[in-house]
Write a structure and sequence with these properties.
By secondary structure, the protein is an alpha+beta fold. The protein is built from 5 helices and 5 strands, in the order H-H-H-H-E-E-E-H-E-E.
Length: 196
């Protein structure tokens, strides 16, 4: 019994106290009935009916063996989603695929989106990056005389999707900028001219 009931018990007649005690025991029995045979509890209080929930999609996935196709599908989907974000960036105007950039022979400004496949520092201090998209793979170079881009690119990791801008020459792109799929810092927020 609760402390309030015990306190009020001194002023009740014995029959009223017996009925109150029976009601409390019945309520406890009903709580026990709310537990299903497999141990799940339907409701903490039987007076509150369980909510009617309509499950549209369950994220519970049965364990299964993963194949190489699953991994390639994952990386292909990831590449498509992140490249979709990068396509909206102003820095990456006139995007080209790796195959189209390789066809260019003269020095031309290019921009492309790709997955980092390799990252090496040469003995001269230049950074060599391998970039791959769905059409092929290409080598990109960040010259040591561009310390700001070199500093931003030191944290690049393999399998990261980035956009690059540079000058194409004989199948190599000399990078002038690396664009990450994040929110641009220099973008000004749109605000209402009037105080709201």
């Amino acid at each position: 019994m609760t402390p309030e009931v015990l306190e009020a018990a001194g002023t009740m007649d014995p029959e009223e106290l017996y009925l109150l005690h029976q009601k409390e025991e019945d309520h406890t029995d009903k709580k026990e009935e709310c537990i299903t045979g497999d141990g799940r509890q339907l409701a903490k209080d039987p007076s509150v009916p369980p909510a009617s929930v309509n499950i549209i999609f369950s994220y519970d996935e049965k364990p299964q063996k993963k194949s190489i196709k699953d991994f390639t599908d994952y990386f292909r989907n990831r590449f498509q989603v992140i490249s979709g974000l990068l396509r909206n960036r102003q820095e990456l105007a006139n995007l080209m695929s790796v195959a189209r950039v390789k066809e260019k022979r003269d020095k031309e400004r290019v921009s492309l989106i790709g997955l980092i496949t390799k990252k090496e520092t040469t003995k001269n201090g230049n950074l060599v990056i391998g970039i791959e998209d769905t059409t092929g793979e290409m080598t990109c170079v960040i010259h040591k005389n561009k310390p700001d881009i070199l500093e931003r690119s030191k944290d690049l990791v393999l399998d990261e999707v980035v956009g690059v801008v540079g000058t194409s020459s004989d199948g190599i792109v000399f990078l002038e900028n690396v664009v990450f799929p994040d929110i641009p810092v220099n973008r000004e927020l749109k605000k209402c001219p009037d105080e709201v």
